[in-house]
Structure formats: structure tokens, C-alpha cells
Amino acid sequence: MADCLFCKIVAGEIPSRKVYEDESILAFHDINPQAPVHILVIPKEHIADGAAGIDETNAAAVGKCFTVIARLAKELDLKDGFRVVTNNGFASCQSVPHLHFHLLGGKVMSGQMV
Ligand code: 5GP
Ligand code: ZN
């Protein structure tokens, strides 16, 4: 999608620090990390909005995001635990309207979810 930041990262028009890539998924370091490990895992396909844009046509890519998350958690040695977050819409402070999952770890996180 023309004006989407993450589509530009997928296309290589904006550089990123990639940690995983295959034909349908890209994972890269967040530019403003909120934890020692903060990776964004995204379907390369532009799934608009966020979780609200998931349907039967793209559910396979979403499932694959989670296999990549599990793989990265092992590779990055997050054996003590990690958190996966996806924001959806204004009230969640979502800033990029292309479905993405934040993989956060490397520290003991707050017990508060919000
Ligand atoms: P959201 O707020 O939509 O859930 O998450 C968007 C994330 O994208 C934020 O954590 C933000 O730091 C990250 N981000 C914004 N611009 C860039 C960028 O140009 N490169 C990378 N790697 N991350 C970005
Ligand atoms: Zn996009």
C-alpha cells in the first residue's frame, strides 16, 4: 500500500534491522524499543487496520507470524518469558495501520496489561 510505513519497509524503501524474513513474513527491530528485546513481526501483505483486519483470506499469514514469534523467542533466548502485543485503533494508540505483533522480552515486565 502506497503510504504505509511497513509496506515501505517490506519493499526495502525504508531500512530496517531484520531478524527474520521469508516469502510472507518479515521481523525486524522496533526503532524505539520498549524492552531489551522488541521485535515487530509483520505479514508482508498489507492487512489494514490491525487485528480487526484478520479474516479467512489472511489467517494463514497471521498463524505464520506466531510460528515466527515462537522461533525468535527460542533464538533470542527468551526462556524466562515474553509478551506479544498487537494494537488496534485509536484507543490502543496504534500508530501504523498495517497488522503487526510486538515481541517484547529480556526483562521482567509490568503485571499491568494497560
Ligand atoms: P503501534 O504503535 O502501531 O502498535 O506500533 C508501531 C511501532 O512501529 C512502534 O513501536 C514504533 O516504534 C515502530 N516504528 C515506527 N516507525 C518505525 C521505523 O521507521 N522503523 C522501525 N523499525 N520501527 C518503527
Ligand atoms: Zn502496509
Structure summary:
This protein is α+β, with helices and mostly antiparallel strands and 114 residues long. The protein has one domain (5-105): HIT family, subunit A. The chain has helices at 5-10, 59-75, and strands at residues 18-21, 25-29, 37-43, 82-85, 101-105.
What is the CATH H-level superfamily?
HIT-like
Number of helical runs? 2
The residue fraction in helices comes out at: 10-25%
State the name of the first-level CATH class.
Alpha Beta
Unreliable runs: none
> Averaging pLDDT over every residue, what do you get?
97
Straight-line N-to-C gap? 30 Å
**Known CATH architecture:** 2-Layer Sandwich
As laid out across the biggest beta sheet, the strand order is 1-2-3-5-4
Q: How many separate domains make up the residues?
A: 1
- Sheet having the most strands: 5 strands, antiparallel
* Class by alpha and beta content: alpha+beta
- Report the C-alpha radius of gyration, rounded: 14 Å
- Which fold does the CATH topology refer to? HIT family, subunit A
Number of strands: 5
Write the element-wise H/E pattern from the N-terminal end onward: HEEEHEE
Beta fraction: 15-25%
Molecular structure report:
With 114 residues, the chain is α+β, with helices and mostly antiparallel strands. It has a single domain, classed as HIT family, subunit A (2-Layer Sandwich). 20% of the residues lie in helices and 22% in strands. It has helices spanning 5-10, 59-75, and strands spanning 18-21, 25-29, 37-43, 82-85, 101-105. Strands 1-2-3-5-4 form a 5-stranded antiparallel β-sheet, covered by helices on one side. A hairpin with a 7-residue loop joins β2 and β3 (37-43). The radius of gyration is 14 Å and the shape is globular. It starts with a helix and ends in a 9-residue tail after the last strand. The model has no long low-confidence stretch (mean pLDDT 97).
